[in-house]
Amino acid sequence: MTTAPAGWKSYTTSDGTLTFDYPGTWSVKEVDGAAALVSDYGKTMARLRTQVGPGPACTTKSQFMVYDSAPIPALAQSGTTPRFTYEARVNATAADPSKPNTFAYGITAAPEPTGTEACPISHVFPWPPRSASFGGVYDPFDTTPGKPMHVDTPEVYKDTTEYKYIKQAMMSLRPAGK
User: Which CATH number fits the domain that encloses residue 113?
Assistant: First the structure.
């Protein structure tokens, strides 16, 4: 059985299949069938859903960046080991210059991107009886009240306590009871 870090709490999904740990100053709220991981200043950092369908089809590809990636062996199913990833996709056709990229972190079973282009971000992984999804978005223009000082690059965000907490919470996801 995994032990949460000192001062952290554990949450088990309403269907009783998955558990993760999160900072004691944060909370988890049930919203529209999902478990929303909420920071101490009230921002939803990520959502966990069980019993979801497959990820999006890969109909178009775009340039991508991967900032962080790590396997999560506790979630392995039928020879597939999901991984935590923090990544971006470039939207070269965005009309708003503040929205050319999508930055997101989550757990995926999609193949790791290679080359210069990748499928859309899909934070979905196999979990009986269907699939599960656990992910969130990094917005470099976020001005949520109470949020720690503005961080304007995904590389710098990776070094923040907020990001480290998010990653640690997602990496702790495991079958309930383990």
Answer: 3.40.1000
First to last CA, the chain: 4
Would you give the DSSP letter of residue 119? P
Residue positions counted in the chain: 178
Query: How far is 63 from 24, CA to CA, in rounded Å?
Result: 37
**Integer CA distances (angstroms), 98 to 70, 86, 91, 93, 157, in order:** 29, 19, 11, 12, 17
Tell me whether residue 3 is in a domain: no
Token readout for 87 is 């990544």
In which residue are the tokens 């949520």 written?
Answer: 144
> HSE on the CB side for 102, CA within 13 Å?
18
How confident is the model over 106-165, as pLDDT tens digits?
Answer: 999 998 888 888 988 899 999 998 899 999 998 877 777 766 666 678 888 899 899 999
Burial class (CB in 10 A: 0-12, 13-18, 19+), 9: middle
Within-domain flag for 70 = yes
The pair of structure tokens assigned to 138 is 């990094």
